[in-house]
Every structure is written in C-alpha cells, then in structure tokens.
Design a protein that fits this description.
Length: 289
C-alpha cells in the first residue's frame, strides 16, 4: 500500500490550481452509489480527497502506461482508487482527462462512496472496497441504443470473435506494458471497431480471463446493438460502428493486423444515442446521455 503525505497533497492541490485549460474529455457514463454514502467532513471524505489528488498528481508521470492504483486511509475509512487511460491516448491527454475526472466525479457524485466515471479517453474509479478482488468487482454496461438491422446474430458473432482474437493479443503483452488492442472488421459495408484493454499490472492469464468474462457479458447489454461497453475494474471491452479511438495512435501504441471480412450489403441507420444499464445496486444511479 502506498501511503499519502500531506506535502504531496498540498503540492498537487497547488498544481491543480495552476493547470491551464485543456480540452475536456468526452464524457460517456458514470455510476455512483446512492445507498453507500459518506457524510460531509467525514474521515472518508478526507481520504477520498487525498486519493483524488494522488491520482491527479500521478497522472503526470510518464512511465505508468496510463494506469495508476492507490488507496488512502485505514479501514474502515480506506478508499481504493484507480485510473486507466485508453491505450492510444497520449500522456498529456491522459493527464488532462484524469484531472478533469477527479473534479467532475465529485460534482456528479458528491457523497457516493463508490463511483466510476467513463470518458472516451479515461476511466476513474474509487470505492470503499478493493475492487481488484473479484468479489467487489461488478461490471458496468453501456450500450448504444440502436440495433443493427442486418443479420444481428452474425453481427453478435463477429463482435465476439473479433474481441476474443484481440484479447489474446492484448493479454500477451508483458506485465507492466500496455495491455491494449484494437481491431477493425468489415460488416455490411460498415466498419466494426473493437477495443480491449486490461490494466498493465494484470498477468496474461488473468487478463485473458477478465476479457473473456467481459465478452460473455455482452448478451446482458448489447445483443444486436450497434455498440457496447463492458467495464470491469481490471479490464474493459468496447465495440462500435464508428471510430471511437485514434487508429493511428493505436497502431503506434501496439501493432495491429489487417481487418477481417464478414458480409455484404443492405444498409442500416447509425444514430448514436446511448443508454446505461447496470446489474448491481452499488451502481444504481448510473446516468445515461
Ligand atoms: C465542514 O467543514 C467546513 C470547513 O471546516 C465547514 O464550513 C462546514 O460547515 C462543515 N460542514 C459540515 C456539514 O459539518
Ligand atoms: C503518486 O502517489 C503517491 C501516493 O500514492 C505519492 O506518494 C507520490 O508522490 C505520487 N507521485 C507523483 C509523481 O505525484
Ligand atoms: C495496486 O494494485 C497492485 C496489484 O494489482 C496491488 O498489489 C496493490 O496493493 C495496489 N495498490 C493499492 C494501493 O491498492
Ligand atoms: C480470429 O482468429 C482466428 C485464428 O487466429 C482466425 O481464423 C479468424 O479469422 C479471426 N477472426 C476475427 C474476426 O478476427
Ligand atoms: C491521432 O493520433 C495521431 C498520432 O498520435 C495524431 O497525430 C493525430 O493528431 C490524432 N488524431 C486525432 C483526431 O486526435
């Protein structure tokens, strides 16, 4: 366990204050416990503040591969937290996203002990329980509300197969490196884009298992949907029929093999409004956009 020092906190509060305006990350979804709450000025809140400034200050480090986890305080007021930036985002975009998230989260979830917020570029999470233990790690789902109209079963299969393929690739990266992979596939004159990611500290077999678990949950949220996200603490998957990552940057971050083909024509609409869904009451004030 890392321990937090007051000097670090003061320093990071200071640096927060002088950070210049950066482009806001693209907000996707958040979840916030509304039954598990803390009271204002409690020890939990103080620990949470320490945690958030530690996450913010560590996001400026260059050698973390977009990931940092830390805890603050002691049981029963201990707070666990982490951030994970999408594998293709630069250090500066990652840092800006995490900084933004630490503030945005408290606005959206001012007294929740358990919270997760997602942007296109990064994820921030904290909890009064160690979400790295499987027991407390419940998935958050997020799906595109639009359905594919052409051969939905084949689309589901293509999504699952492509995600499985790149899971192997992402998981095989050495521990500590980015465990991240993207892959395109052709679908009905459109391009399916898929992404998988584990936290860099996750060993290969655990990463593979986590991703397989996430893929197996797709039926809970995303059957026939044009896009979907399944988020666990240690891994996440996403697919869409539009470009939601920077393919150039992704190719630089990790090498990508050529696209895979599936089926020919008809056409389908591609409006993207979104809806959130969760399967656990810890995440019962999930807000959709
Ligand atoms: C919390 O602390 C601040 C500053 O110490 C004080 O102004 C505020 O009244 C306190 N709030 C509660 C609910 O105790
Ligand atoms: C990162 O956070 C730890 C506490 O977890 C703190 O001791 C350390 O100084 C931070 N590093 C940076 C660069 O802010
Ligand atoms: C961060 O994660 C590592 C491994 O996943 C774990 O050993 C460590 O205890 C965690 N740190 C904190 C502060 O929770
Ligand atoms: C997945 O990988 C298998 C074997 O490596 C390959 O035959 C198949 O075409 C791939 N499919 C997709 C959708 O990537
Ligand atoms: C994508 O990444 C490349 C390489 O890092 C960068 O030059 C380009 O500006 C990025 N494009 C967008 C739209 O961010």
């Amino acid at each position: 366990m890392d321990s937090l020092k007051l000097s670090t906190i003061l320093l990071s509060l200071l640096s927060l204050a002088i950070i210049t305006q950066a482009q806001d990350p693209k907000y996707l979804i958040y979840s916030c416990s509304d039954t598990t709450t803390f009271t204002r000025n409690s020890t939990y809140q103080a620990n949470l503040n320490l945690l958030l400034s530690s996450l913010s200050s560590n996001s400026t480090r260059n050698n973390i591969n977009g990931f940092y986890n830390v805890s603050a305080g002691k049981d029963p007021d201990e707070v666990y937290g982490m951030f994970l930036c999408r594998g293709d985002v630069s250090n500066s975009v990652c840092r800006d996203c995490v900084n933004f998230a630490t503030k945005d989260m408290l606005k959206k979830c001012p007294i929740g002990k358990v919270a997760t917020i997602w942007y296109d570029e990064c994820e921030l999470r904290y909890s009064n329980r160690n979400f790295f233990s499987a027991e407390y790690d419940s998935p958050v789902f997020f799906s595109n509300i639009n359905y594919v109209t052409f051969e939905p079963e084949r689309f589901n299969q293509l999504v699952a197969i492509t995600l499985s393929n790149i899971s192997t690739r992402a998981a095989s990266a050495p521990t500590g490196d980015k465990k991240f992979a993207v892959q395109q596939a052709n679908y009905n004159l459109q391009i399916l884009r898929t992404l998988v990611q584990c936290t860099p500290d996750l060993p290969t077999p655990d990463c593979r298992r986590c991703l397989a678990g996430a893929i197996s949950k797709l039926g809970n949220c995303c059957d026939g949907k044009q896009g979907g996200i399944v988020i666990f603490a240690r891994c996440n998957i996403r697919y869409e029929l539009y470009e939601f990552y920077n393919a150039t940057a992704a190719a630089e971050a990790v090498p990508a093999p050529p696209p895979v083909a599936l089926s020919p024509p008809p056409a389908s609409g591609s409006e993207t409004r979104r809806k959130g869904k969760v399967d656990n009451d810890l995440f019962n004030c999930l807000v959709a956009i």
